Amino acid sequence: MGKLMDFIVLDTRNYDRSITTLGWNDDYIPLIADDAGRTLMGSHQENWFYRQLSESAGRGATWRIIGNQIIFSRVVESFGTNGDNWNGYVANRNRTLKHLYDNNIGNNVFLAGDSHQNWVSDLVWLGEKPYNEATGAGGVGVEFAGTAVSSTGARGTISTTDAAARARISQSSVLQWQDGYYRGYFLMSVGKDKIETQFFGKSAVNPTFLSPERPET
Q1: What's the DSSP call for residue 180?
Q2: End-to-end distance of the chain based on CA atoms, in angstroms?
Q3: Which long-range contacts (CB under 8 A, 24 or more apart) does 161-169 make?
Q4: How is the beta sheet containing 63-67 ordered, strand by strand?
């Protein structure tokens, strides 16, 4: 799209993906999450992805908008990390971050869904590069993840889901904002000097979805 941005879309759900959490193996995946042989997208797509990032920066595009299905950032839950997103493929995430940092490729924006919740995070190689969580200095971009108008979300009230969000933020240095109560969408406006993203939502399409007593479907 001119020199304003490049839009890169990945398949991180199906194409040549190493095994993910399937219920019966949920305790096993964290043990192999950092295995160098694990991949979210296969070597062919992974190398293609890195070439797209480098070519985008090389031609002078201001932004790289990267669409994928699952949360990229390292978010810590009450139970630990979710092995069904990039947290279950740590080596693959590290290779991606290494490529961005080694080649000085900034202004990257990851877009994700899947989690049925809203997230805003900085893109940072934690433990390898300096990072100021108050200012975002040291990051190479941001991640926006959203819900859907018709999907279920976190169970409970505004108060309980807000408390859960605050706990996630306190445990995850890259996580800047999080919400699991509202269902909706976000709009992202891309300009030469900045990107602005607005989240819109309502409590639920059907309020019974939020009842703690309602079984998950």
Answers
A1: S
A2: 40
A3: 164/78, 167/78, 168/75, 168/76, 168/77
A4: 5-9, 63-67, 108-112, 141-145, 118-122, 175-179
Q: Is 69 in contact with 13 (CB distance < 8 Å)?
A: yes
Torsion of CA 114, 28, 23, 215, to 10 degrees: -70
What is the C-alpha separation between 60 and 64, in angstroms, rounded? 10
d(CA 105, CA 34): 24
Radius of gyration of the chain (CA): 17
Amino acid at 112: A
Query: pLDDT tens digits for the chain (217 residues)?
Result: 889 999 999 999 999 999 999 999 999 999 999 999 999 999 999 999 999 999 999 999 999 999 999 999 999 988 889 999 999 999 999 999 999 999 999 999 999 999 999 999 999 999 999 999 999 999 999 999 999 888 787 888 899 999 999 999 999 999 999 999 999 999 999 999 999 999 999 886 654 444 444 333 3
